[in-house]
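Continuing the batch. This is chain 6 of the set; chains 1 through 5 are on the previous pages. Same settings as before, nothing changed between runs. Recording input and output for traceability.
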Amino acid sequence: MASVIEWPKEVVPSSMNWQLVSNSKTFVSTFTGSAQTVRYPGSRWRCS
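Output for chain 6:
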């Protein structure tokens, strides 16, 4: 399990953008060029 990281008090972001990212992976065939996307359970948050 991931631990919680403390945010430094001196660092104050001017803006934040939160996005929910799905847990998926895309595979592309080297023979036919076709793509297959597999979705796994669970999502994660990304902040930029």
